[in-house]
C-alpha cells in the first residue's frame, strides 16, 4: 500500500467517539515502550505522526490514525506499567476488552513484544485472551536492530514458545530503525482488510441479477 495521506483523528475515551465511517481497523497492543508509535511511523514513512512518549503508561485512550481512505491504526493503551494504579489498570482493562470484543470494524490486533526479552506475564495473558476470544492476532517482535542478527532465530523461538504459539506460526520480526519487516507486515495488513478487492455486491443487486438475467 502506498501511503499518500496519514492523519491523527481522535483520542477516544469511549464508543461514542469512535469513527463512524466503517473503515477497517487494525489495533496495536503491547507493553508500554514496546514501540507501537515507532511502528506506525515506520509503516507510513513519517517521523512523528504517532508521538513516542518518554513517560511509559501515559497513553490512556484509543488513538485513531487514518491511513489514506483505507483503514485506521488504533493505538491501544500500553499494559504492564507498574506505576499505574491497580484501579486505573482495571479501568483500562475493561475499556480495551470492550473495544476488542465489540468493535465491528476491527480486523486484526497486532500484539507487539520486545524481541530482546522473553514475553512477560502480561504479554502471555494478552495473547492467551485474544486466542481464547477468537480475536485475530499477529505477534510482531520489535526492536530487532537492538540484538545481533546471529541471535534473531534464537530470540524468535523464545517468543514463540513462551507465548505458546501453534506449530508453524511465527512472530513477525520488525525493526522501525532498519525498516525490517515493513513490506511483509503491509502485505499481511492488506490481506486482513481485503485491500484492493472489489466491494461485495448487495443482496438487492444479487437478487436482481438472479431474477432478471441478461439476455444471451
UniProtKB/TrEMBL annotation:
Highest taxon in the source lineage: Bacteria
One Pfam family named in its UniProt record: MMR_HSR1
Keywords attached to this entry: Cell cycle, Cell division, GTP-binding, Magnesium, Metal-binding, Nucleotide-binding, Septation
InterPro entries noted in UniProt: G_ENGB_dom, GTP-bd, GTP-bd_ribosome_bio_YsxC, P-loop_NTPase
Domain EngB-type G: 22-195
Cofactor requirements of the protein: Mg(2+)
Transmembrane segments annotated in the record for this chain: none
Chain's role: Necessary for normal cell division and for the maintenance of normal septation.
PANTHER family tied to this protein: ENGB-TYPE G DOMAIN-CONTAINING PROTEIN, MSS1/TRME-RELATED GTP-BINDING PROTEIN
Similarity remark: Belongs to the TRAFAC class TrmE-Era-EngA-EngB-Septin-like GTPase superfamily. EngB GTPase family.
NCBIfam families reported in the protein's UniProt record: GTPase_YsxC
Protein name per UniProt: Probable GTP-binding protein EngB
Gene: engB
